[in-house]
Structures are given as structure tokens and as C-alpha cells.
Automatic annotation (TrEMBL):
Domain Phosphoribosyltransferase: 131-250
Occurrences of domain Bacterial purine repressor N-terminal (ranges): 4-73
Protein name: Pur operon repressor
GO biological-process terms attached to the record: regulation of DNA-templated transcription
Entries under InterPro entries matching the protein: PRTase-like, PRTase_dom, Pur/Pyrimidine_PRTase, PuR_N, WH-like_DNA-bd_sf, WH_DNA-bd_sf
A GO MF label: DNA binding
Coiled-coil intervals: none
Record SUPFAM superfamilies: PRTase-like (SSF53271), Winged helix' DNA-binding domain (SSF46785)
Annotated organism of origin: Aminithiophilus ramosus
Highest taxon of the lineage: Bacteria
Length: 265
């Protein structure tokens, strides 16, 4: 497979980008491209520099026995704000305002061209927490959480509001909502293990009851929640059911009845 260096760099970069946070063996790449590990290491340094210039993240190399390299998304503050401001402009369109102070954004989260950058942004915010699984609830939070899991190189666990036979055995947790009702959330027993480090991701937070429900699910499994990320958090009520979270955007109501979306740094 030995060829020109330009082609080798492109192919190596594609392997790193296809599976972020997953190690690619330098020994295997050296064998596949029929060059020495020293050459591969030099190529990795070039790719790492290019990713850094693009402000996407870095290539981390394990110098141990495995000798692997992995691309870890870590958006710079400038690129993160640029991406998020473009999304904020899109979801601030007047026709997206719904009754009850809500915003229509399903088309954003179900469009990979938006969901992937949003997932990379949240993954960058939680890159250092050491999560080994991402948790979300159905339905609209799934695309965003899946791209966060993809960027971090970990699996996704989904809480459901109705138990399905195809999920196998499940644990059900009851939690109160902002309106005072009590809902039930289910998690398949095969999706989460005791001691897992969980990153909770949700699409929208008003009072925080859904996220609080997921925290209860994690506790029931004996898992450790290492962070909570949200696509949009409403400004009101100011007091949420969860104490700590990181949101990409804040939604507030204007005095004249409109809505305002701002990027949270």
C-alpha cells in the first residue's frame, strides 16, 4: 500500500476522524503503508498541526506498548462561538416561536450538519471529565447525545418513558415534573453498569425535571454522573431541579412576547 506521502496523510487523517477518541495503532499503520514507525510518527505530527490550525482538536499519541494515536475533538473558544452563533441565528427566527415560550428546533437536532458541530462543542466542554458512557432521554436529545458520544468515543444509553420488550429487562424510576405530576423513566439493565462514569445530555431544560430523572436512573444503577450538558436552557425558572449543568444556549422571553437565544460561553 506504499504510496505518496500526501495520499498517506489524507488516509491517516480520515482514519483518525472517522472514529474520534479511538486509538489507531501506529504499528498497524506502519505495516499498512509499508513505512517505518518513525515516518508514521512524523506524519502524525503534521496531521496534529493541521487539526490545531483548523481549531478542531489535537491528535494524542500513546507512547506505551500499544503505540496508538487518537484524535480528540477540542474546539477553540473562537471556533466554538462561531459555530454556535450561526446556530443561534438560525433558531432565533421569528416563525420558530411556539406557544408557552418554546422554540421549534427539531429540524436542527435531526440535521447532521448542525448536530455534529453541536455534539463536538459539548464534547469539548466535557473532554476532561473521563466519561465512559453518554446518557440521554428520548426523543429529541438522541441525535445530539449520539454525536457527543461519537466525539468522545463512548457508547450512548437512552432512557425511555415507556418500557419496550425489545429493550429486555429494565429499571424504572419515578420522578416529579415541574407541574407536580410524577413520570416514570426506564433504562435497560444492559445499557448501564455499576461504576460507570456518565455524562448526561439533554436537548431542552426548563425546570430540569427530565435531567433530574436521569440522575436518579444513574444513581439507581450505582453509576457516577460526571457532568450534565444541555442544548438550550430556559432562563426561567431560575431555580432548576439540578444544581450543576452546562448549556450551549439560553432561551429568554422578551417583554414584547418574542424570544431571545444567546450563546453561553
Amino acid at each position: 500500500m506504499k504510496g505518496q506521502r500526501t495520499e498517506r496523510l489524507v488516509r491517516m487523517a480520515s482514519r483518525l476522524l472517522l472514529f474520534p477518541a479511538k486509538q489507531v495503532s501506529l504499528t498497524q499503520m506502519a505495516g499498512a503503508f509499508q513505512v517505518s514507525k518513525t515516518v508514521i510518527s512524523d506524519d502524525i505530527a503534521i496531521i496534529d498541526g493541521a487539526f490545531a490550525q483548523e481549531e478542531l482538536g489535537r491528535v494524542v499519541v500513546d507512547r506505551g506498548r500499544s503505540g496508538g494515536a487518537a484524535f480528540r475533538p477540542a474546539l477553540t473558544a473562537g471556533l466554538r462561538r462561531k459555530w454556535l452563533e450561526s446556530v443561534a441565528q438560525r433558531i432565533s427566527e421569528e416563525e420558530r416561536l411556539l406557544p408557552g415560550g418554546l422554540i421549534y428546533y427539531s429540524d436542527i437536532l435531526f440535521d447532521p450538519s448542525f448536530a455534529l458541530p453541536l455534539g463536538f462543542a459539548l464534547a469539548s466542554d466535557f473532554a476532561e471529565v473521563g466519561a465512559d458512557v453518554v446518557m440521554t432521554s428520548e426523543v429529541k436529545g438522541i441525535p445530539l447525545a449520539l454525536y457527543v458520544a461519537h466525539a468522545l468515543g463512548v457508547p450512548l444509553a437512552v432512557c425511555r418513558f415507556r418500557n419496550r420488550a425489545s429493550d429486555g429487562a429494565a429499571v424504572g424510576v419515578h420522578f416529579p415534573t415541574l407541574s407536580g405530576d410524577v413520570r416514570t423513566m426506564y433504562m435497560g439493565t444492559r445499557q448501564l453498569r455499576k461504576g460507570s462514569k456518565v455524562l448526561v445530555i439533554d436537548d431542552f431544560m426548563r425546570g430540569g425535571s427530565t435531567v433530574a430523572g436521569m440522575l436518579l436512573v444513574a444513581r439507581e444503577f450505582g453509576a457516577d454522573v460526571v457532568g450534565t450538558g444541555v442544548f438550550i436552557a430556559a432562563a426561567e425558572p431560575a431555580q432548576k431541579a439540578v444544581k450543576s449543568y452546562k448549556a450551549l444556549f439560553q432561551l429568554s422571553r422578551e417583554p414584547q412576547g418574542g424570544a431571545r437565544i444567546v450563546v453561553i460561553d
